[in-house]
Amino acid sequence: MIELRKDYILDRWVILAPSRKKRPRDFVRQAADVSANACAFCKGNEKLTPKELGRISNPDGSWSMRWFPNLFPAVQEEGQKEARTDNTFYTFAAAYGSHEIVVETPRHDRQLWDFSAAELEQLLKVYNERISGLGGKDGIRYVVAFKNSGSEGGASIAHSHTQIASVNVLPKLLREEAAAMKNYPGCPYCRIIESEKGSYRRCFENNHAVAFAPYASRFNFELWIFPKRHLRQLSGATAEEMAGISEILALTLHKLKELNAPYNYILHYLPEAENGNFHFHIEVQPRLSIWAGFELNTGIIINSVTPEDAARFYRGEEG
Ligand SMILES: [Zn+2]
Ligand SMILES: [Zn+2]
Ligand SMILES: [Zn+2]
User: Fold this and answer.
1) How many whole angstroms separate alpha carbon 306 and alpha carbon 189?
2) pTM, 2 dp
Protein backbone atom coordinates (compact mmCIF):
# COMPACT_ATOMS: atom_id res chain seq x y z
CA MET A 1 0.00 0.00 0.00
CA ILE A 2 1.16 3.50 -0.73
CA GLU A 3 0.91 5.51 2.46
CA LEU A 4 0.03 9.13 3.10
CA ARG A 5 1.58 10.52 6.29
CA LYS A 6 1.27 13.85 8.06
CA ASP A 7 4.13 15.58 9.86
CA TYR A 8 4.00 15.25 13.68
CA ILE A 9 2.59 18.72 14.23
CA LEU A 10 2.64 20.60 10.89
CA ASP A 11 0.00 20.43 8.18
CA ARG A 12 2.56 18.87 5.85
CA TRP A 13 1.88 15.60 4.02
CA VAL A 14 4.16 13.04 2.41
CA ILE A 15 3.37 10.13 0.10
CA LEU A 16 5.54 7.08 0.75
CA ALA A 17 5.61 5.04 -2.43
CA PRO A 18 8.51 2.63 -1.90
CA SER A 19 7.82 0.61 -5.05
CA ARG A 20 8.92 3.68 -7.01
CA LYS A 21 12.54 3.12 -6.03
CA LYS A 22 12.53 0.01 -8.21
CA ARG A 23 11.88 2.15 -11.23
CA PRO A 24 14.74 1.92 -13.70
CA ARG A 25 15.03 5.67 -14.02
CA ASP A 26 18.41 5.75 -15.65
CA PHE A 27 17.35 3.26 -18.27
CA VAL A 28 14.25 5.22 -19.08
CA ARG A 29 16.21 8.42 -19.58
CA GLN A 30 18.72 6.78 -21.90
CA ALA A 31 16.03 5.00 -23.84
CA ALA A 32 14.11 8.22 -24.24
CA ASP A 33 17.21 9.97 -25.52
CA VAL A 34 18.59 7.38 -27.91
CA SER A 35 15.61 5.83 -29.56
CA ALA A 36 11.89 6.01 -29.86
CA ASN A 37 11.76 2.24 -30.49
CA ALA A 38 11.85 1.45 -26.78
CA CYS A 39 9.51 4.29 -25.85
CA ALA A 40 6.18 3.03 -24.52
CA PHE A 41 4.51 6.32 -25.37
CA CYS A 42 5.37 6.21 -29.08
CA LYS A 43 2.99 5.30 -31.87
CA GLY A 44 3.27 1.56 -32.53
CA ASN A 45 4.21 0.72 -28.92
CA GLU A 46 0.71 1.01 -27.46
CA LYS A 47 0.93 -2.56 -26.12
CA LEU A 48 3.70 -1.48 -23.75
CA THR A 49 1.37 0.75 -21.71
CA PRO A 50 -1.38 -0.29 -19.29
CA LYS A 51 -4.85 -0.66 -20.78
CA GLU A 52 -5.95 2.49 -22.52
CA LEU A 53 -8.72 4.53 -20.85
CA GLY A 54 -9.42 6.80 -23.78
CA ARG A 55 -8.03 8.42 -26.91
CA ILE A 56 -8.60 11.10 -29.48
CA SER A 57 -8.78 9.38 -32.84
CA ASN A 58 -7.95 10.75 -36.24
CA PRO A 59 -10.18 10.00 -39.27
CA ASP A 60 -7.63 7.42 -40.51
CA GLY A 61 -7.92 5.44 -37.25
CA SER A 62 -4.62 6.61 -35.74
CA TRP A 63 -4.59 8.54 -32.47
CA SER A 64 -3.47 12.05 -31.61
CA MET A 65 -3.74 11.73 -27.79
CA ARG A 66 -4.32 8.76 -25.52
CA TRP A 67 -4.53 8.20 -21.77
CA PHE A 68 -4.05 5.22 -19.47
CA PRO A 69 -3.14 4.39 -15.84
CA ASN A 70 0.40 5.25 -14.74
CA LEU A 71 2.50 2.09 -14.49
CA PHE A 72 4.27 3.63 -11.49
CA PRO A 73 1.44 5.30 -9.58
CA ALA A 74 2.00 7.64 -6.64
CA VAL A 75 -1.53 6.82 -5.42
CA GLN A 76 -3.74 3.73 -5.70
CA GLU A 77 -7.39 2.87 -5.20
CA GLU A 78 -6.83 0.67 -2.17
CA GLY A 79 -6.65 1.00 1.60
CA GLN A 80 -8.14 3.40 4.07
CA LYS A 81 -9.29 6.69 2.53
CA GLU A 82 -9.78 8.68 5.73
CA ALA A 83 -6.82 9.88 7.79
CA ARG A 84 -6.46 8.45 11.29
CA THR A 85 -4.22 9.46 14.20
CA ASP A 86 -2.46 6.97 16.45
CA ASN A 87 -0.66 7.97 19.66
CA THR A 88 -1.13 11.72 19.09
CA PHE A 89 1.68 12.22 16.58
CA TYR A 90 1.15 9.59 13.87
CA THR A 91 -1.49 10.63 11.32
CA PHE A 92 -1.84 8.51 8.22
CA ALA A 93 -4.11 7.13 5.52
CA ALA A 94 -3.65 5.25 2.29
CA ALA A 95 -2.45 7.49 -0.53
CA TYR A 96 -5.79 6.84 -2.15
CA GLY A 97 -6.66 7.78 -5.72
CA SER A 98 -5.90 7.20 -9.40
CA HIS A 99 -2.83 8.24 -11.31
CA GLU A 100 -3.10 8.57 -15.08
CA ILE A 101 -0.87 9.58 -17.98
CA VAL A 102 -2.07 11.57 -20.98
CA VAL A 103 0.29 11.12 -23.94
CA GLU A 104 -0.21 14.33 -25.88
CA THR A 105 1.23 13.25 -29.21
CA PRO A 106 2.16 9.97 -30.94
CA ARG A 107 5.45 11.60 -31.99
CA HIS A 108 8.57 11.33 -29.87
CA ASP A 109 10.16 14.42 -31.39
CA ARG A 110 7.33 16.85 -30.63
CA GLN A 111 6.93 18.74 -27.37
CA LEU A 112 3.98 20.72 -26.09
CA TRP A 113 5.67 23.97 -27.07
CA ASP A 114 5.40 22.82 -30.72
CA PHE A 115 1.62 22.61 -30.39
CA SER A 116 -0.83 25.02 -31.97
CA ALA A 117 -3.48 26.72 -29.85
CA ALA A 118 -6.10 24.37 -31.35
CA GLU A 119 -4.09 21.31 -30.29
CA LEU A 120 -3.64 22.70 -26.79
CA GLU A 121 -7.36 23.34 -26.63
CA GLN A 122 -7.92 19.65 -27.35
CA LEU A 123 -5.59 18.81 -24.47
CA LEU A 124 -7.40 21.17 -22.08
CA LYS A 125 -10.64 19.40 -22.99
CA VAL A 126 -9.04 16.07 -22.10
CA TYR A 127 -8.04 17.56 -18.74
CA ASN A 128 -11.64 18.62 -18.15
CA GLU A 129 -12.89 15.17 -19.01
CA ARG A 130 -10.43 13.41 -16.67
CA ILE A 131 -10.89 15.91 -13.83
CA SER A 132 -14.66 15.43 -13.84
CA GLY A 133 -14.31 11.66 -14.37
CA LEU A 134 -11.91 11.17 -11.46
CA GLY A 135 -13.15 13.95 -9.20
CA GLY A 136 -16.61 12.46 -8.75
CA LYS A 137 -15.32 9.23 -7.24
CA ASP A 138 -15.90 8.24 -3.63
CA GLY A 139 -13.18 9.42 -1.23
CA ILE A 140 -11.56 11.78 -3.75
CA ARG A 141 -11.04 15.41 -2.66
CA TYR A 142 -8.98 16.79 -5.54
CA VAL A 143 -7.62 16.01 -8.99
CA VAL A 144 -4.14 17.34 -9.71
CA ALA A 145 -3.43 17.92 -13.42
CA PHE A 146 0.20 18.80 -13.96
CA LYS A 147 2.79 18.91 -16.67
CA ASN A 148 6.45 18.05 -16.11
CA SER A 149 8.68 19.05 -19.02
CA GLY A 150 12.42 18.52 -19.16
CA SER A 151 14.45 16.60 -16.60
CA GLU A 152 14.69 19.59 -14.23
CA GLY A 153 10.91 19.76 -14.54
CA GLY A 154 10.74 16.20 -13.21
CA ALA A 155 9.99 14.44 -16.51
CA SER A 156 11.69 11.03 -16.40
CA ILE A 157 10.29 10.10 -19.82
CA ALA A 158 11.14 12.50 -22.65
CA HIS A 159 8.02 11.73 -24.68
CA SER A 160 5.59 14.57 -24.04
CA HIS A 161 2.90 13.72 -21.49
CA THR A 162 0.76 15.11 -18.67
CA GLN A 163 0.01 13.42 -15.37
CA ILE A 164 -3.38 13.49 -13.72
CA ALA A 165 -3.72 12.22 -10.15
CA SER A 166 -6.78 12.14 -7.91
CA VAL A 167 -6.08 12.30 -4.17
CA ASN A 168 -7.96 11.86 -0.89
CA VAL A 169 -6.82 15.20 0.52
CA LEU A 170 -7.45 18.77 -0.58
CA PRO A 171 -3.82 19.89 -1.11
CA LYS A 172 -2.58 22.40 1.45
CA LEU A 173 -1.59 24.98 -1.18
CA LEU A 174 -5.10 24.99 -2.59
CA ARG A 175 -6.65 25.22 0.85
CA GLU A 176 -4.38 28.13 1.72
CA GLU A 177 -5.16 29.91 -1.54
CA ALA A 178 -8.92 29.42 -1.11
CA ALA A 179 -8.74 30.57 2.53
CA ALA A 180 -6.67 33.66 1.65
CA MET A 181 -9.26 34.67 -0.96
CA LYS A 182 -11.80 34.98 1.86
CA ASN A 183 -9.78 37.87 3.32
CA TYR A 184 -11.11 40.08 0.50
CA PRO A 185 -14.61 41.13 -0.46
CA GLY A 186 -15.64 39.38 -3.68
CA CYS A 187 -12.92 37.69 -5.70
CA PRO A 188 -9.45 39.21 -5.26
CA TYR A 189 -8.26 37.62 -8.51
CA CYS A 190 -10.93 39.45 -10.51
CA ARG A 191 -9.40 42.70 -9.20
CA ILE A 192 -5.81 41.48 -9.58
CA ILE A 193 -6.48 40.65 -13.25
CA GLU A 194 -7.85 44.16 -13.81
CA SER A 195 -4.79 45.66 -12.18
CA GLU A 196 -2.11 43.43 -13.73
CA LYS A 197 -3.36 43.49 -17.31
CA GLY A 198 -2.29 47.12 -17.45
CA SER A 199 0.88 46.75 -15.38
CA TYR A 200 4.56 46.22 -16.22
CA ARG A 201 3.90 42.56 -15.49
CA ARG A 202 1.34 42.07 -18.26
CA CYS A 203 2.31 39.33 -20.73
CA PHE A 204 -0.60 38.37 -22.99
CA GLU A 205 -4.23 39.31 -23.34
CA ASN A 206 -7.11 38.43 -25.64
CA ASN A 207 -10.88 38.83 -25.35
CA HIS A 208 -11.32 36.02 -22.84
CA ALA A 209 -8.04 35.43 -21.04
CA VAL A 210 -5.03 37.22 -19.67
CA ALA A 211 -1.53 36.27 -18.52
CA PHE A 212 0.90 38.10 -16.30
CA ALA A 213 4.09 37.47 -14.35
CA PRO A 214 2.94 37.42 -10.71
CA TYR A 215 4.09 40.30 -8.48
CA ALA A 216 6.01 37.98 -6.12
CA SER A 217 7.18 35.46 -8.74
CA ARG A 218 8.93 32.45 -7.22
CA PHE A 219 10.35 31.09 -10.47
CA ASN A 220 12.36 32.76 -13.22
CA PHE A 221 9.75 33.69 -15.87
CA GLU A 222 6.81 32.45 -13.79
CA LEU A 223 3.49 33.24 -15.47
CA TRP A 224 -0.17 32.83 -14.50
CA ILE A 225 -3.02 32.46 -17.01
CA PHE A 226 -6.55 33.47 -15.99
CA PRO A 227 -9.89 33.50 -17.77
CA LYS A 228 -11.22 37.06 -17.46
CA ARG A 229 -14.61 35.83 -16.35
CA HIS A 230 -14.87 34.54 -12.80
CA LEU A 231 -14.76 30.77 -13.37
CA ARG A 232 -14.29 28.33 -10.55
CA GLN A 233 -13.31 25.45 -12.84
CA LEU A 234 -12.11 25.16 -16.41
CA SER A 235 -15.08 22.89 -17.15
CA GLY A 236 -17.33 25.95 -16.85
CA ALA A 237 -15.55 27.75 -19.71
CA THR A 238 -17.40 28.57 -22.93
CA ALA A 239 -15.97 27.52 -26.31
CA GLU A 240 -14.63 31.08 -26.81
CA GLU A 241 -13.02 31.06 -23.37
CA MET A 242 -11.38 27.68 -24.01
CA ALA A 243 -9.97 29.07 -27.26
CA GLY A 244 -8.75 32.21 -25.51
CA ILE A 245 -7.00 30.31 -22.71
CA SER A 246 -5.45 27.89 -25.22
CA GLU A 247 -4.14 30.72 -27.36
CA ILE A 248 -2.38 32.26 -24.38
CA LEU A 249 -1.00 28.90 -23.25
CA ALA A 250 0.40 28.43 -26.78
CA LEU A 251 2.02 31.90 -26.77
CA THR A 252 3.54 31.16 -23.36
CA LEU A 253 4.98 27.78 -24.33
CA HIS A 254 6.36 29.14 -27.60
CA LYS A 255 8.34 31.69 -25.58
CA LEU A 256 9.58 28.98 -23.21
CA LYS A 257 10.83 27.06 -26.22
CA GLU A 258 13.11 30.02 -27.03
CA LEU A 259 14.73 29.44 -23.62
CA ASN A 260 14.60 25.64 -23.95
CA ALA A 261 13.29 25.92 -20.40
CA PRO A 262 12.31 22.92 -18.32
CA TYR A 263 8.98 23.77 -16.72
CA ASN A 264 5.92 22.64 -14.84
CA TYR A 265 2.41 23.87 -15.11
CA ILE A 266 -0.53 23.05 -12.92
CA LEU A 267 -4.25 23.73 -13.08
CA HIS A 268 -5.58 25.51 -9.98
CA TYR A 269 -9.28 25.19 -9.25
CA LEU A 270 -11.59 24.34 -6.39
CA PRO A 271 -13.89 21.30 -6.71
CA GLU A 272 -17.65 21.77 -6.44
CA ALA A 273 -17.74 19.82 -3.18
CA GLU A 274 -15.43 22.30 -1.43
CA ASN A 275 -17.14 25.16 0.25
CA GLY A 276 -15.41 28.20 -1.11
CA ASN A 277 -14.89 30.65 -3.91
CA PHE A 278 -12.14 30.33 -6.49
CA HIS A 279 -10.95 31.74 -9.79
CA PHE A 280 -9.52 29.07 -12.06
CA HIS A 281 -6.00 29.65 -13.35
CA ILE A 282 -2.98 27.87 -14.78
CA GLU A 283 0.35 28.48 -13.03
CA VAL A 284 3.36 28.05 -15.33
CA GLN A 285 6.61 27.47 -13.45
CA PRO A 286 9.83 27.42 -15.49
CA ARG A 287 12.56 25.48 -13.65
CA LEU A 288 15.67 27.41 -14.61
CA SER A 289 17.05 27.69 -11.09
CA ILE A 290 17.27 25.28 -8.18
CA TRP A 291 15.70 25.88 -4.80
CA ALA A 292 18.57 25.30 -2.44
CA GLY A 293 19.25 25.51 1.31
CA PHE A 294 17.84 28.99 1.82
CA GLU A 295 14.60 28.33 -0.05
CA LEU A 296 14.02 24.84 1.34
CA ASN A 297 14.57 25.89 4.93
CA THR A 298 12.99 29.33 5.07
CA GLY A 299 10.22 29.05 2.49
CA ILE A 300 11.46 32.41 1.15
CA ILE A 301 12.38 32.13 -2.51
CA ILE A 302 15.30 34.00 -4.06
CA ASN A 303 14.43 34.77 -7.71
CA SER A 304 17.07 36.34 -9.95
CA VAL A 305 14.60 37.46 -12.66
CA THR A 306 12.11 40.17 -11.77
CA PRO A 307 8.54 39.60 -13.00
CA GLU A 308 8.77 42.95 -14.78
CA ASP A 309 11.77 41.69 -16.82
CA ALA A 310 10.07 38.33 -17.37
CA ALA A 311 6.99 40.09 -18.74
CA ARG A 312 9.15 42.11 -21.16
CA PHE A 313 10.53 38.81 -22.46
CA TYR A 314 7.05 37.37 -22.96
CA ARG A 315 5.95 40.54 -24.73
CA GLY A 316 8.98 40.32 -27.03
CA GLU A 317 10.49 43.59 -25.79
CA GLU A 318 13.74 42.24 -24.36
CA GLY A 319 17.25 43.24 -25.48
ZN1 LIG B 1 8.23 8.21 -27.59
ZN1 LIG C 1 -12.64 36.05 -9.87
ZN1 LIG D 1 -2.99 29.36 -7.67
Assistant:
1) 21
2) 0.92
